[in-house]
Amino acid sequence: MRNHRLVLSAALVAAGIGLIPGIAQAAGPGPVAPAAPAAAQGAAATGAAPDAARAFKGKAFTSPADRTVVTPESGDRTGGTARAQGAQGEQDGSRLSIDLYATGTGAHSIDLRTIVLPWDDAALDVTISWGDGTTDTFSATVAGFDTDLRYTKHTYAAVGSYDVKVTVKDTTNGVEAANELTFVTAGAEFTSHAPTRLLDTRAGLGAAQAKVGGRSSVALKVAGVAKVPAGVRAVVLNVTVTNTAGPGHISVGQDKDLAEGAETSNVNYVAGQSVPNLVIAPVGDDGYVHLFNGGWESVDLLADVTGSFTTAPAAGYGALTPTRAVDTREGVGAAKGQVAGYGTFGVEIAGRGGVPAGATAVALNLTATNPRADGHLTAYPSGQAAPATSNVNFTAGQTVANSVIVPIGPDGKITVRNGSWKPADVVVDVVGYYTPDSRSAFVTAWVPMRLLDTRKDRSWGLRKAAPVPARAYEPMRLEGDRTTPEVDGWALNTTVTNTTGAGFLSVAPDPNFWSDYQNGTPVTPQRPLSSSLNWTAGATVPNLVQTPGGKGGMVDFWNQGWENIDLLVDLTGYYQTIR
Question: Residue 259: enclosing H or E segment and its boundaries?
Fold first, then answer.
């Protein structure tokens, strides 16, 4: 019997099914939301190909029919242009109207719905100008008061804002009409930012100098602050909770209601802990993000920015299979031996391990292990002074990891600093990079989507609640069964809970296709060496993971411990090039 379970993350997928409200709980790994349907090993494949990316509902852009501008034929009684006024109007504007509705499907694509309504029988010639210098055309014959409704998809070469104009010529009645809207791509590209503290409730930075009360939230202005662009779509924050007096969780959202009503969590804590986690947070139209304390006791919150995503060409993502760049225990990538208290060391990043020479930032998993005293680790660009921020917080003897996105210095290096007064070992795994040569843009989930909660039965009974067995892996299908994945990388918030011993989680691409599992013929993946998060008995530990899928769009979650664990996986976004 194979030592793995098979997960199908199809729920909120082809049919666009939304999350079902779950049970809010202050302790443990965030609120519990029913997960997507799952298929146990050997179950028949579902009819609809699952595709987690397509479950994202993009922002809608509209221009209703009453905004149509109509130009009558020469010599017509109005003698000029008019706004469409509906089928019963008396101006020429009522002879022809165009309703526009557009959404973003994927990082660079637009799905445009056009509804053309003529007053009389009409032969129509339609031109769609996409705003990037390209057009599509079609013709239709429509009976009076009937409509021509159709969907047209277009892909842009770059992320950005585009003015889309639809022009309709009614050659039968000599009328021309036009309507237009401004469309913004769902994808955004990355700009690195020197690590900068935006929020510290202990000091009154970014918010009042006071703890965030239990079941309360704090609003943090990020757009236009500390050189973060005004039109930012999402921001990369290292969020830390500290001075905790009880268990709870932190949820981050683009507005207060979304943060406080979230069915997922970003950071989990218990009394006396200081816990960080990297969050790629969507930013509200008002330039704010909101951080909700889901515990019953007050806490202090810190947030450090290391980058942002905007809808303008900057740097795209490059996904890598996790590669160990540094292990001071073995002398890999740095001198063998613990890093001295308040000591630093440089790490060569650009031009090594799959990271190109022109990369501007790197995505890492940074781990502290065997520390002799409490402290923290900070990663920052080489050639700069150490910032007053932290990436990983630890206590004596603890092994703890955190995801990090850090700018690369001009010499192609980053610097890691041990913020403890005593030595500690450091492990660095490279999981991806950002470069101007890539057009792989990030599409953020306005609300994180729970893909897996092993504590709960999945919809339709296809996967019963069961932990991930010791030394086993959990394959997850994130795309349809295709030979070339459409997504370059996934941003997943992973949480391990109900632990009875120490261990670590590894996340890596799966080499199989979904059909291989359905047929009972999968190749057993090679066990990864890298770690995404570490835990001890009784701990609940989250960490953001950025990973590519395998050739079939599948990802494996490895329980590298010797006891069973429960696992939660929340989709927070994905990276995609032009398709």
Answer: helix 256-260
Helix (H) or strand (E) holding 518: helix 514-518
The tally of CA atoms less than 13 A away on the side-chain side of residue 427 is 24
C-alpha distances out from residue 222 to 231, 254, 283, Å: 10, 11, 8
Residues in the chain: 579
Q: In what order do the strands lie in the sheet with 234-242?
A: 189-200, 300-310, 234-242, 275-282
Q: How far apart are the C-alpha atoms of 37 and 29, rounded to whole Å?
A: 20
CB atoms within 10 A of CB 141: 12
What DSSP designation does 205 have? B
In Å, how far from its chain's centre is CA 391?
A: 19
In sequence order, what DSSP letters do the residues of 539-560 get, joined into one string? --EEEEEEE---TTSEEEEEE-
SS3 call for 189: strand
Q: DSSP strand E in 79-188: where?
A: 82-83, 96-104, 109-118, 122-129, 135-142, 148-155, 161-170, 175-184
How many C-beta neighbours within 10 Å does residue 44 have?
8
Mean pLDDT score across all residues of the chain = 88
* pLDDT given for residue 84 in this prediction: 52
- Given this model, what pLDDT does residue 94 score? 56
Which helix (H) or strand (E) covers residue 258, if one does? helix 256-260
pLDDT of 459: 52
Angle at 387 between CA 385 and CA 393, to 5 degrees: 130
How many Å apart are CA 271 and CA 540, to the nearest integer? Answer: 12
336 close to 253: Cβ distance less than 8 angstroms: no
467: DSSP letter: P
Sign of the torsion formed by the C-alpha atoms of 244, 248, 252 and 256: negative
234, 282 in Cβ contact below 8 A? yes
| Residue with more model confidence, 130 or 479 | 130
Burial class (CB in 10 A: 0-12, 13-18, 19+), 139: exposed
CB contact at 8 A, 495 and 568: yes
**Inter-residue contact 188 to 441 (CB < 8 Å):** yes
Give the pLDDT score at 8: 37
What is the Cβ-side half-sphere exposure of residue 41, based on CA atoms within 13 angstroms? 11
pLDDT tens digits along 81-94: 555 544 333 444 45
Tokens representing residue 538 in the block: 């009784």
Taking CA atoms, 434 is separated from 254, 316, 542, in Å, by 24, 5, 24
Q: Tell the residue number behind the tokens 């613990």, with chain if given.
A: 338
Q: Hey, what amino acid is at 109? A: S
